[in-house]
Amino acid sequence: MKATLMYGAGDVRVIDVPDPKLELPGDALVRVVRSCVCGSDLHPYHSMASDPAGSTMGHEFIGVVEEVGADVTSVAVGDFVIAPFAISCGECVFCRAGLQTSCLRGGFWNDAELGAAGGQAQAVRVPLADGTLVKVPVDENAPDDLLASLLTLSDVYGTGWHAAVRGGVTRGSSVTVIGDGAVGLLAVLSARQLGAEQIVLMGRHEVRTDLGREFGATDVVAERGEDGIDKVRELTGGLGSEIVLEAVGHRPAYDQAVGVVRPGGVISRVGVPQYDEAPVGFGSLFGPNVTLTGGPAPVRAYIDRLLPAVLDGTVVPGRVFDRTVALDETPSAYAAMDAREALKVMVRP
Hints:
The protein has helices at residues 42-47, 93-96, 129-132, 144-152, 156-167, 182-193, 206-215, 225-235, 251-260, 282-286, 303-311, 330-338; strands spanning 2-8, 11-16, 28-36, 55-56, 61-68, 80-83, 86-87, 107-108, 123-126, 134-136, 174-178, 198-202, 219-221, 241-246, 261-269, 291-294, 323-326, 345-348. By secondary structure, it is of the alpha/beta class. It folds into two domains: 2-155 and 299-348, Medium-chain alcohol dehydrogenases, catalytic domain (Quinone Oxidoreductase, Chain A, domain 1, Alpha-Beta Complex); 160-294, Rossmann fold (3-Layer(aba) Sandwich). Strand 1 and strand 2 form a beta hairpin.
């Protein structure tokens, strides 16, 4: 079969690899119907050291179950499934608490120890299938827009929702979202669904921020740095936002969050941090009683809540996909997203 591997910064290739096989009784084999490139995939695309062996890529996919191990009971051959970006057992103390990203037996796609290769491929072996996969009452011939929205439930929609939930968004909240990528836009959508009254989207790409307005943003701030902070404070009556959802992961975005949050407010980070140190002392978080929260989203815990509105078309998070490519063209998807020529690219095997 064909699969996507990265061999170093900027070096993405689609090659032939052995077909996956069941290895444990709890495994399932899934034929991939749609996968995609994530903004977080661009981090290794910029910085990965050269590796002649390469690393499989992709952690978001939906597909059809082709084979199951003897112990699998929650899905069967022929079922259409969503594969969250974290592999989880569904039984440990953290899974039962809805924190599948900390599963004691699980992990993440592209983890060599789990033998879990990436989703930018034609097929994937799924460990811990009962705890990981979510059966959906559709088939692979569903409309493209529905498939796109279902694919967002494997990561970016659930991650935007996680940002809003951890931030404590409720009816009437004042929220600022930092970042106009797919996660930031779906954090806007999530904040609106949870009842936020004011949603300021900080982003400078007009096509993206226009979609953000359609998802529920009440204001857009294109400025960055101190100018951006001043603009948000102006829009919030000089107080700053009660809740800030940071969906970028770079240090300037964190600094923006600290600058726009009001005393007693919350910063919820879901952008994967690309920095090791950031201010948390008296002048930044401690003095104004600001809470810092967030982390990798346990999207498996949110799918049941978010799925019905996706299935009936009430919400269409799949609008964040603005390009679709064939699997062989996956390297071009990375290049397009890196150049900001595409917001998020879906891959059709």
